Prior knowledge:
Layout: E1 2-5, E2 24-25, E3 28-29, E4 34-39, H1 47-62, E5 65-71, H2 77-82, E6 87-90, H3 103-108, H4 110-127, E7 131-134, H5 137-150, E8 154-158, H6 168-174, E9 177-180, E10 198-200, H7 216-222, E11 230-235, H8 244-254, E12 260-265, H9 272-283, E13 291-295, H10 300-305, E14 309-312, H11 323-330, E15 335-338, E16 353-356, H12 361-372, H13 375-392, H14 398-416
Parallel strand pairs: 4-5, 4-7, 5-6, 7-8, 8-9, 9-10, 11-12, 11-14, 12-13, 14-15, 15-16
Antiparallel strand pairs: 1-6, 2-3
Helix pairs in contact: 1-14, 4-5, 8-9, 8-12, 11-13
Amino acid sequence: MRRNRSKKQSSGLGLSSKGTESVTIGSGALNRPLRVLMPFAGSGVGGSVVSSAEMIRLLLEHGGVKPVVVTPESGPSSPLFEATGVELIHSEPSGIRSDTGRLGGKIKALPRYTRAYLNARRLLTELQPDVLHLNEDRLVLPWGAAAHSAKVPVVWHIRQERPNRMLDGIRLRLSRHLIFVADANRSRFASTRGLPPSTRLYNVVDTARYRPTSDLSLDKVRTGLNPNQLTLTFLGNLVERKRAEWVLQAAGYIQKHLPIQVVLIGAPLGPVSYVDSLHALAKQASEPESILFLGLRDDVADLLRASDVVTLPSVLKGEAFPRAIIEAMASGVPVVATDVAGVSEAVENNVTGFLVDPQDYQAYESALYELLGDTERRKHMGLRARDVATSRFSGTAMARSLLEIYDSVVNQNRHRH
């Protein structure tokens, strides 16, 4: 196990940290910060990891909490976590990369779950956290079981929309408190009785880092984009549920009528055949040289400022509360998205962007074409989007709400044990 105790620092990610202090728990006060352990199954970067890093930054700025992050190895997520000042530990990989699908897949995954459970028991014994905060569904079973044995309360932060009917019941029994990233996310357990206490906490965005452009053409030049073309940006890893093919199909039509460049920001994490099909679609566009696959980038805020429209046409049940949406809104960029999960809790249709039926491609293409072709409407929607982002998703109250949750589960744990 390798530890990295990060100091206060800045890495260009707009993240910083403050010192910690004692925290009041119930009727007494701990003479040390509350220890909160947050393990992750991989070391890659996606929306849930970025949201978790932002949450950690806010906790450290507030004080009274000592988060510790565990990842299997150094990777793309390491600089993101290190920039917050959090203690980062690299431990052995569990091999649990995703939910394991049907029954056969779950049976085959049992050795990996066993290794993950044993690793979790070891780390919980060594680190002695007050709370285990889990941000990934796939870790709730092995880590939750280990925490149950170690008498450590579990907070399950539900960042995925798609249910797992076979495992969710066990996960719920292992959890003391649920955090939903959107009200719509509660529908995942609509038919379940006796849920643990729960709280809705929206993902938050750093509105100082993600801010509107003061000169759109200049920002396009700075990021290597064509200042004479409209920029349509897709922000998300290239996985099937985010449906980048809709973006490329629509671009093939819109390029015949408007001068647009399409920017796709995200790692190619989907099946090779799927990623290959996206590149094949791009080659069929009217101007294939204006379709840019940028991969994983650390200058997302700059690229969003250089965008005219941001889009995310995810499938039904493909999102919970995508942070790409609120990062675009904070950047003053209107959004065209499918109306899935908690997206409508951020985007107000015809006010801060357009929402379309996730099964209606034609409506999606029309909404993109309409907004890309209307400069004044984009400007007006972008201003309203920025207002909503700063008032609703700036994270002012998040740390306080998390401390209240931790307070609750620690006190429950005291009374039980």
